[in-house]
Design goal:
Elements: H1 3-17, H2 19-29, H3 44-58, H4 62-87, H5 93-98, H6 100-110, E1 118-125, E2 128-134, H7 141-154, E3 157-165, E4 174-183
Antiparallel strand pairs: 1-2, 2-4, 3-4
Helix pairs in contact: 1-2, 1-4, 2-3, 4-7
Length: 188
Amino acid sequence: MYGLVNRAFHELVCARYGESVWQQIRIKAGVDDEVFIRMDSYPDAVTYQLIEAASQVLQTPSPVLLEEFGRHWMRYTALEGYGDLLSDMGSSFQQALAGLDGMHARVGLLYPDLKPPLFRCTDITLDGLCLHYHSERTGFAHMVIGLVEGLGEKFGLKVAITHAVARGDVQDHDSFAIRILGPLHNAS
């Protein structure tokens, strides 16, 4: 996993809970790195350990943290200079989801050791689609839920996501049924 992922998680925790809580999480995870270099590669175990430690310290289930992290990831990467890549994914929510693999191919030019997930969209309609998520990493399906919600926000849409099929012994990938519920309404 590239340092950018761990930096984003660090930023989320610090923004919500403070630096002292991040330090508790880092120490509980047994992670010596105090700073993650964005373009350096780190063992996947570091990310898994940080998420598990955060779950324990914050007394929040990992799936809840991963969904929050997915939503945060969309905002964070835009601020970290990847906003143009996100904008180039498509002019609609459905086009953007269908463009995830192309975006990852472009990101792979910057990060040569990148092992991105693969996404495939099926059953595309005006108000939804089915998203298939393939990854060599396990345990990140809930992050995908947060990413899709965050992408919906980017397009000003409220979306509902159902984890329709979970990866397991019979299925080699996760599938999500996504419905567009309508525009986001800001409370005044």
